[in-house]
Amino acid sequence: MKKNAAVIGYGGMGGGFHVKHLQSSDVCNFAGIYDIDPAKTELARSRGIKAYNSREELLADPTIDMVTIATPNDVHEEIAIAAMAAGKHVISEKPVTLSLESLERMIAASKKYDRIFSVHQNRRFDVDALAMKQIKESGEIGEVINIESRIHGSRGIPSDWRGIKQYGGGMLYDWGIHIIDQACMILGYDVKSVRCTFDHITNKEVDDGFQLWIEYQSGKKAYCEVGTYNFIDMPRFYMRAEKGSAIIPHWTIPAHVVKCKAWHESDVIPVVNGSGLTKTMAPRDSITVDEYDIPKPVSDVHDYYRNFTRAIDGLEEQMVTHDQMRCVLKIIMTAFESVEKGGDAIVW
Q: pLDDT tens digit string along 286-311?
């Protein structure tokens, strides 16, 4: 049976993403929105969307089964707990909240009121991340050594609340939460240490870019980078493994794999490199490596809502679990601590 879903917050993600998906959903009926801004309320109504006069009115509606929170980050906790207390299941936009203590209060409310509660990690459905996960899980280039994940743009930090510290602004909270979640989706959650440095090129109050290193108990490593003042993009993903490498130059391009099938060549011919000769950096040939592309995986981001509604009915475990939410947010918190200590590695 379809669930009746409402959205609190009619901004970019609320109106531009969640409402549009819910209006055409095969698992939800879209019930309406509430936004604190009267202009956004009127905009919704002008589009034929039901807009509640207050958050209390929305939460008091007994026909609503679930609520998606798409507001500035600093009020996620307050709204989520109020919604669960009102009997609603809750999806919070990312980051779920701004501290581990806050997250624990939200999880406690989920248990107290017996409501499903999760965070909207929609970029688990990005085909570039899924391709890297597929390569890792297939074992076709052996055990993974490390991955590098980068998101680059050149327009600086957004000029809305995302540039203001008190609202939970900054790129670590904004894009960082996505690529950290993807790294853990690929490599696991057994984190050993975190190290981080920030950029403050276009914004002095919050980070407008960062460089983050994650080391896992397994010995695997992830490097995550977001830049908003990069006029030339570096590769979206790069992976090294025991038997080869994989690269995705841009999210629009399929993954390219180079697989080592023979380590030694019988006679490596030196090549001219710059001002000298080198055997070490001589290119491989088809005798020792195979090269091929991986077709883009099939992905549907609305599977997140399909999973959430089935979790409400007890048919599936929720896709983004509380423990995963704890781990990813702890990486964020540890990254802030690392920055405060001059970029030192912080061991968990």
A: 889 999 999 999 999 999 999 999 99
